[in-house]
Amino acid sequence: MSSERYSAQALIDFAIALLDNAGMEHDKSATVAEILVEGDLLGHDTHGLQLLPSYLDDIEKDELAINGQPRVIADLPAAVAWDGMRLPGAWLTANAVDLACDRAETHGTCAVTIARSHHIACLAAYLKRATDRGLMTLVTTAAAENHSVAPFGGKAGAITPNPIAAGWPTNGDPVMIDVSMSITTNGMVGRLGEEGGRLPGKWLIDADGNPTDDPAVMKREPPGALLPIGGTEYGHKGYALGLLVEAFSMGLSGHGRADPVEGWTNEVFVQVLNPALFGGRDEFLRQTTWVAEACRTVPPRDGVKRVRLPGESGLRRREKQLREGVELYPSIMSTLAPWANKLGVELPQPLT
Hints:
Blueprint: E1 5-6, H1 8-21, H2 26-41, H3 52-60, E2 71-76, E3 79-83, H4 89-107, E4 109-117, H5 128-131, E5 136-142, E6 164-168, E7 175-179, H6 186-195, E8 204-205, E9 211-212, E10 225-226, H7 231-251, E11 266-273, H8 281-296, H9 312-324, E12 326-327, H10 330-343
C-alpha cells in the first residue's frame, strides 16, 4: 500500500467538518481534530486520525457526548477534579492541561483528574502545550473497560497498556516521553491483526501463557494478552508502573474498574509544574540542558547512528510533515471515506 501526503491544515479542517456534521459543538470538534492530527504529525499514527472513525461511530451510538461541560467535583487552586460526562477526551484533556498551566504559573503546580472521559488519543500531542510555556507536565491515562495487559506472571489480561507521557523544556528542544507500560499497544496489535501481520517480537501471550508474535490470539476465546514492558523475564517493572498509572488515573479521579462499564472510557491524570517557583527557571534549564547534551554526546554503539533524546525524532518528523505534508498510514483515508460520504464532507486532496 502506498502512502499519500496531505496538508496538516487540510486534515484538521476535514476532521472538524466530519465532527461538526456529526453534531459535535464546534469548539470541541476543533480541539479533537487538532489533537488527532498532532498525533500523526509526531508519528503516532495508530493514535491520530486512525481513531476518528471509531469516534464517529460512538457519536452515532450516543456513547460519546457531543455538547456540554464537565461536572466539577473539586476545585482547589492546585487540585481540580472533573467528571468528564463522556465528553470528547481530547477536548477535556487539552483544557485540563491549559488550566493546569495557568494555575501552575501562580501556584507552582496544579493537578487535574478527569473521570469518565471518552478516549484521549495520543498523549504526546498534549506536551507542547506546557513545554512551549516553559513548564513541565505529566499525563497518564487508563481505560476501565479494557483489560488487555497481563500482570507479571499471569496468563490473562487485567489492566490496560496505561501510557505515561511527560515533557519538559531545555535550552533547545523539549524532552518528550510517551510510552505505554506494555511492550506494544492495542492499536498496533489491532492494525497488524487486520492486515494478517506479525509483531516484531513475542510481545503477547496466548491463553495458555505462551509468548507469541501473533496478534490473532487477542481475538480468540479465551483471548491472549499483551505483555508488560520487560516481557516474561523482567515484566515486573512494566507491571508495577502500570499499576502506578492505574492509581494516578483511576484512583485519584475516583472512577475506574470498580464501577460499571459505560463504553470506551479514559480516566486521566494531568499535572503541570512551574520550574520558576521551585529551584528557578534558569537553574532548571541549566540542569535539563546539561543532561540532554551529556546523553547526546555519548558515543553510539555499532549500528546506531547517534544517541537521541526521547521525542527528538518525533519533533523532527513533525517539522518535516508541517513543511512537506502529513504522510498518513495507507489505510486511514480509506476508512474515513465512507464517513465523508455519509456526512457530506469532501475528502481532502493529497499534495502533488
